[in-house]
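Appendix B, record 7
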Amino acid sequence: MYLAKADRYDGMKYNYCGESGLKLPFLSLGMWYNFGFKENFENMGNMLMTAFDLGITHFDLANNYGPPPGSAETNFGRHLNMELGAYRDQIIVSSKAGYGMWEGPYGDFGSRKYLMASINQSLKRTGLEYFDIFYSHRPDTDTPIEETMGALADIVRQGKALYVGISNYNPDQTRAAVAELNRCGVRCLIHQHSYSMFNRTSERGLFDAINETGIGSIAFSPLAQGQLTDRYIQGIPTDSRIAKGYYLKKEDITEEKLNKIIMLNEIAKSRGIKLAQLALLWVMRRSEMTSVLIGASKPEQIIENAAIVKMPPLNADEQTEIDKILG
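Structure tokens (predicted):
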């Protein structure tokens, strides 16, 4: 059996999730990519256990993660059986439902039918008795908010999740969702949203809604799907997301964006750190942020990213210089 390091919590920072009693690590591990059936199974286990040894106790899934959809949950479940399951009470496992999973009118969005079927399928794939956090992955304007949030509340009452959250909701949708969950007697724990130097939409009202409602906040795609690294400065690596065709395209790296990446990389180098580390520190400069989700294709990337926990936060001059570059 795998033996976790006794000092794995040393150095990791933990933040209370909004006004709840739950703490999340400064960094969480997301399985959006690199945990599907086409990836190396042993490498997945090495990444999971490397993260755990570094104090990253939160592992984030969704029913559609893969590829193909469902495969990330299946592979995670297999590693729970082999290694990580012995530490179930020391970890947080989250999953979501909201994007297309199966054919027909009941395999997508936010109906009670879809959410209930989805969590049952996700529990079966992972082999878990419950999720620590279960999200509505995206808002559904064609389904009453009372139905979607009512289903999440019942998921908690049925013991299939300890907490529930929302993802990709705009400010007004966030307020409405939190209010409806409160009416159902179940608190909304957290909002998961895209936030990076290249996507600052959350600053236009969402952080205000998060502060008003007292919920936690966790960012996904903090590196803009790998753009905020030094990987593309000298061209496109063969093992990159662009080369693999994972959402990011060659056209996304415009000349203007590449110039910004190069200038941001100079700030990172002046600090003696990597651009990816700078981008993560930038996201976590916000007081609203509970945690930030990192993705990885190898354990070394997790080790490199986790090093930010021991780094000083960005100072005012650095933030001003970054803002000038971002425009």
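Remarks on this record: The longest helix spans residues 255-271. Confidence is low (pLDDT under 50) at residues 1-8.
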